[in-house]
Target: Heparinase
Amino acid sequence: MIARLAGTTALLALLGAAPPEADNPDTNRWADRPHGPIYRNDVAPMDWTVSARLMPQVEALLERLLREKRAMSLGGVKVFESGDKFLPGKIAVAMATRITALPEGDPRLEQRLRDFADIADLTIADANDSWGIYYYASALHALDERKLLTRAVRPATLARLRTQLDWRRFVRPDLSLIDLPNNYYGVAFSIARLRFLMGWESEAASEALLARTLDHYRKYSGEYGFADETEGKGRFDRYSVLLIGEIAQRLVETGMTPSAEVKAWLRRSVDLLLPRFNLSGEGFEYGRSIGAYGETAFLEVLTAAARLKVLTPEEERMAYAFSSRIAARYMDFWVDGGSVDLWNQGRRTDAYRGIHRIFGENLSLARQYVYTNAIWNDLGYRGREPDRGYARWLETLPRSTTTWFARGTHDRALVTIRDRGRVIGLPIINGAEGQHMHNPYFPVPFSPGMLQGSADAAYPHLVPRITLADGSVLMPLAWFKDVRVARRGAVTEVQWRQDALDLMGEKDARPDRRATIETRYRLAPGRITRIDRLVPAAGIRIVRVDLEFASFSRGGRAAAMGSTAFSSGEVRTFSAKGYGACRAEPARDPVYRAPTGPFETVVRCANEAPIAGRPIALSWTLSYNSPVQP
Model:
């Protein structure tokens, strides 16, 4: 009941809330609680959170849009001058939901149809690309299914939309994508299928695009069933797990039955996600576009899995319990002052999701909660209290799991550790083009609320940055071989080697053989150690090795040579060897921000002694407290 009362208070506050522009962007509501809220045994049913808290928040934004139209601003951003090329589609799908959510015979229907028509006219000339096309087509299809389309869109506008909402705008005649990552095949298929269902084109294009989507999935997922976002370079991140959930959802949305192969891939994603369940509703801990989207990725995969019956009955109940926590977290943690907040309170997201997209992010995130909640409702969970045995069930999850993405020329994997309720992930992947140098892709431990990276940031977080005499900078980020994982009691050991390091300064990862490295991790209860043996090639001189550690812990002070002790926070100590002198300072630079909030302390270590012709021993160890969770 406490969670429901908290939600009611938030709803009442929303009704009289100042717009986000009035908020102090430097005020961090969760400064002492980087995990955000913890929902032990009392969390509201997902449908209550969505219908009583989220929907009024979205409705308030749409009412502002209807009043202010092109003059609308949100979070200091002029909505229609923001350059958000998905915005018309996101607006359309939100406006369609206002219509389709009405019960039969509701007297508000006619006004809402007029509202949709007015906004469609307002945005018809605005840029609307890829995802925006899909959102818009999905909105029109939902109206068409209810025989409301011609009442919601005026004839001239509908004729223009029929031309504009076309997958061919980002797919070539040979079905290759135009400068887009491979997950956009699924977007193109969805658009083509929706066009077919509305009678705008034949079924041939959607069948061809679906075949291309699944062929790519087979080719680059191999025997392990996870989609490489690149063409074989090894970027296995949030989207590699989410994509099959999206494909399954789009198949069902457009009246198709997912194959046994799709269901098997979906089950692989479920197996990766289950060990990451927690009491806070926290989601993906590494890679790009995480934060709020790292949590909705769980929702989309889990609801697809529940709908397609690839979960056991117990897993389904626990997936619903976790989904309810994710929904509550969205409203409690991510929504502030009537808007989602991915950018203020010391938070940092990637440029792709910059604050210029604030209005669209509100709408697209809300859509994910609305449609996944509808699935849980259809499965019989409407208003159902989440299983009160969820916290006990978490204790039964395996303490250590290894998920393989690829093995062979280079190995790619994810090691997951559960330590007294805490989830720690160690991704061993290549961020590849545009991301290899960014620390959310580094092969280091991540743990929501304790160990995080900074979006689009390249500081050497827990990984050595090696400077050669000619000024070249190398880092061990991409070329993993011989990955081995061993479990000995409560300790998990992980090791690999790299015969080439990654040359910094390039857009894509580039192997550089002027140094090699062997790496070993030891993950024990309350303690993580990394040991590296760095070997320069003959005649190569290393002039500097740097390391940084950004932490939510406070009060860092020198405890011994290369060691820092913290006065508060979950990380208690951090020590480094082989990196020279280390110093702890307040993390004032904006680069030291995680998706969930600002780091408090950064420890910087630098060995500037010239080193030549011999192996270099490097290591660091951090210790941490038991989490707040039981």
